[in-house]
Amino acid sequence: MNTLSISIISLIISLFSSSTSVSQNHLVDSAPICTTPQKHIVEIKQLKFIPDYIEVNKGDTITFINNDYVDHDVTEEKTKKWSSSLMKKGSKWSMVAKEDADYYCTLHVIMKGKIRIKK
Amino acid sequence: MKKHVTSKLGLLLTAICFLATSSLFAQEVPQLNDTEIAHVGVVANQIDISYAEIAKKKSKNKEVINFAETMMRDHKSVIEQATALVTKLGVSPQDNTVSQSLLDGAEKTKKILNGLSARKFDKAYIDNEVTYHKAVIDALNNLLIKQSSNTELREFLQAIVPALETHLKHAEMVQKSFK
Fold it and tell me: Is the pLDDT assigned to residue A13 strictly greater than 50?
């Protein structure tokens, strides 16, 4: 094995080693270690919840903002266990997500959305 | 027999509503300026509020009353914003043949609705709402938006369409419960 061959092998080992290190760091960085509750926005516009499907962690806060030109509300659909009450144009309402929920606007009953808790 | 009578009433209301809006789709398409378009917009909203006011008085059906209250609230909101827009633009809505045609049709429709029993009223009111919203959406898309020359007015009219489409879907959903 001449000097050139040894250098090439060393370079390959060095690159491989470096790549593994980056990869490991990436894995550590993206691990779900964040426990701080996150904030999410759902905009109400042109009689739609945008987005109408949202995945959040339990304990995250979801803020609904009525940017429409008519009043709305945000109400849990199955048993109406929670509701924003009437939201005037430009108003906001926040809730802490505790469980999966399907919700709708009681004023415009075809306006619907879903909250899903990440597993 | 009762179903037949209710069905005939529905057809009559549909015919009146069609005649009231037919001028919008006549072979000779009416040419409207922005002040006239604004007037048609306000009148169309006022008419639906007037239908909803009758529903609030006559209906005992929770879904129908909820729908009527939404129509009153939403159409009032649209009128308020249309008024704010024309004030900003410094124009006054002008009466015109299309507005008059709508108002004439609405008077006939209200007379029929007011003469119905509560039970027959619910279906007739919702059937009329379906027909009326379809006609107004068509008028907006095929006449009012196309003919409006002011950008803000055109954008305002375009922004109303999704609300009317939602009203239409809501009315169709209530309509299904009567079949």
Answer: no
- Say how far apart CA B128 and CA B68 lie, in whole Å: 12
Q: How many domains does chain B have?
A: 1
Query: How far does the CA of residue B70 sit from the closest CA of chain A (Å)?
Result: 6
Asked whether the beta carbons of B44 and B140 are under 8 A apart, the reply is no
Which residue type is seen at A114? K
pLDDT above 50 for B78: yes
> Which of B121 and A2 is assigned the larger pLDDT?
B121
User: Do you find a cis peptide bond into A37, omega within 30 degrees of 0?
Assistant: no
Determine, for residues B162 and A111 on separate chains, whether the beta-carbon distance falls below 8 Å: no
Cβ–Cβ < 8 Å for B28, B127? no
Q: What confidence score (pLDDT) does residue A7 get?
A: 53
- CA distance to A63, A65, A73, A112, per residue, from A91 (Å): 10, 6, 10, 19
What's the CATH code of the domain at B10? 1.20.1260.10
User: Is the CB of B163 less than 8 angstroms away from the CB of A47?
Assistant: yes
Domain extent for B12: 2-176
Q: Lowest mean pLDDT: which of A19-33, A48-62, B54-68, B101-115?
A: A19-33
pTM > 0.90: no
Q: Which strand ranges, in their side-by-side order, compose the sheet holding A53-56?
A: A53-56, A112-117, A101-104, A75-76
Taking CA–CA distances from B172, the nearest residue in chain A reads A110
DSSP B94-162: ---HHHHHHHHHHHHHHHHHHTS-HHHHHHHHHHHHHHHHHHHHHHIIIIIHHH--SHHHHHHHHHHHH
Phi and psi angles of residue A36, each rounded to the nearest 5 degrees, phi first: -70, 130
- Across the A/B interface, how many CB contacts are shorter than 8 Å? 38
ipTM of the complex, rounded to two decimals: 0.78
